[in-house]
Specification:
single chain; 349 residues; alpha/beta; Cytidine Deaminase, domain 2; Dihydrofolate Reductase, subunit A; 29% helix; multifunctional enzyme
Length: 349
C-alpha cells in the first residue's frame, strides 16, 4: 500500500503535469522522485512528443541520487521505443528501487509494470487513480474507444436559444465567458463546426491568445468543417493561422473515423445545432460545456436540433461543475443514457 508520503508525491506529480498544457498526441505525465527517507529529489514532466518523458526528465535532474529512489508517476512507465526509449529501461539503469503509478497504460506502451516486476523492482499501481485517469482521459479515450473524445460547447440564453430568428448570435455571452472558452479550446487538437455556421458567422476556429493560456500557440488545433456546402476561399477559416480540413460527410461516425485516422484525440465541437444534434443523437458527445447568458430571446434557433419526440428521449447530463463566469453560468457535464435506451435493453433481456 502506498504511504502517505507517496500519495502526497502523486498529488504533486498530477499538479506538475497539469501545468504543461496540451501535450497531445502524447499524454500529460508527471513524476516525482523520492529518496529512501521520503525526501523529494526531483519533479519531472512530459512536455510533448519528442521530448523527454516525465520519468527521464526527473531522473536527469536527480542524477546519481536516483539510485535506490522511489519513482511516483501518474501513468504506468512505458515499455516501448517510439521517438524516445522505454522509461522502464531508464528507471532500471538509474537504479530506482520502487515505482508507484496511478493509471495503467492503455496504449502501445503497456507492459511497463510487468517488465519492472520481472526485473525485481517493487511496483504499486492505482494510486489516486481517479485523478490520474482524469488527467489522461482525452488521450486514453482514443486508445480505449477507437475514436476521438468529443467536447460539445454551446452558448445560449436562459430559454435555450443560441441565435435570434435572423440568425445573429454574436454575442450571447460575455467577454469573460469568451475568454474562458479559450482555456478549454486549448485542451483540444481539433476544433469542428458545420458549414452552415461557418458561412453564417465566418469564424476563425482557432485558440486566441486573449487569456492566460497554458501554452504558446505555435501549435494551433486542426480546424474541421463538416458539410458539403462550398465555403469561399477568403473566409477566415482558410487563413494561414492553422490547418483546415473539410469533411463532406455529415455522418458523425465517418467524421470521427477520419479524424481518428488523422491522429486526432480530442475534438472541440461548436458552431451548428444541426451538427451537434447529429453527434448527440448518435451518443458521440462525451462532455458538454454550456454557457448560459442571463437573458431571454423568446424565439430563434435552439442550441441543439434533434429528433426527440417524447420525454422518453430525454438524455440526462451528470453535472460535474457549475460556475459563474462573469455574468454567465458555465455548466460542465457528462451525457447519460436516454430512458428509452434503458427500456429497450430491458425488453431485449
Amino acid at each position: 500500500m502506498a504511504s502517505q508520503t507517496e500519495t502526497d508525491a502523486m498529488r504533486r506529480a498530477i499538479d506538475a503535469a497539469r501545468t504543461v498544457g496540451r501535450t497531445l498526441p502524447n499524454p500529460p505525465v508527471g513524476c516525482v522522485l523520492l529518496s529512501p527517507d521520503g525526501t523529494e529529489l526531483a519533479v519531472g514532466v512530459h512536455r510533448g512528443a519528442g521530448t523527454d518523458h516525465a520519468e527521464v526528465d526527473a531522473l536527469k535532474q536527480a542524477g546519481e541520487r536516483a539510485r535506490g529512489a522511489t519513482a511516483v508517476v501518474t501513468l504506468e512507465p512505458c515499455h516501448h521505443t517510439g521517438r524516445t526509449g522505454p522509461c522502464t529501461q531508464a528507471l532500471l539503469e538509474a537504479g530506482v528501487a520502487r515505482v508507484v503509478f496511478g493509471t495503467s497504460d492503455p496504449a502501445e506502451g503497456a507492459g511497463g509494470a510487468k517488465a519492472l516486476l520481472d526485473a525485481g523492482i517493487d511496483v504499486e499501481s492505482g494510486v489516486l487513480a481517479d485523478e490520474t485517469d482524469d488527467l489522461v482521459r482525452f488521450w486514453a479515450h482514443r486508445h480505449l474507444h477507437g475514436r476521438p473524445f468529443v467536447t460539445w460547447k454551446y452558448a445560449a440564453t436562459l430559454d435555450g436559444l443560441s441565435a435570434a430568428p435572423d440568425g445573429t448570435s454574436k454575442w450571447i455571452t460575455s467577454e469573460t465567458a469568451r475568454r474562458d472558452v479559450q482555456r478549454f479550446r486549448a485542451e483540444c487538437d481539433a476544433i469542428m463546426a458545420g458549414t452552415y455556421s461557418v458561412l453564417a458567422d465566418d469564424p476563425r476556429l482557432t485558440v486566441r491568445d486573449e487569456a492566460d493560456l497554458p501554452l504558446p500557440y505555435d501549435r494551433q488545433p486542426l480546424r474541421v468543417v463538416v458539410g458539403e456546402s462550398k465555403i469561399p476561399s477568403y473566409y477566415r477559416v482558410f487563413d494561414r493561422v492553422a490547418p483546415t480540413r473539410q469533411i463532406p460527410s455529415r455522418d458523425p461516425h465517418e467524421v470521427l473515423k477520419q479524424l481518428f485516422e488523422a491522429g486526432i484525440h480530442h475534438v472541440w465541437l461548436e458552431g451548428g445545432p444541426r451538427l451537434a444534434g447529429a453527434f448527440w443523437g448518435e451518443g458521440l458527445i462525451d462532455r458538454v460545456i454550456g454557457y448560459m447568458a442571463p437573458a431571454m430571446l423568446g424565439s430563434g434557433r435552439a442550441a441543439l436540433e434533434g429528433e426527440a419526440t417524447t420525454l422518453a428521449d430525454i438524455r440526462p447530463i451528470d453535472i460535474s461543475d457549475l460556475t459563474m463566469v462573469g455574468p454567465d453560468i458555465r455548466i460542465i457535464g457528462t451525457p447519460g443514457r436516454a430512458p428509452r435506451e434503458d427500456m429497450d435493453e430491458e425488453v431485449q433481456d
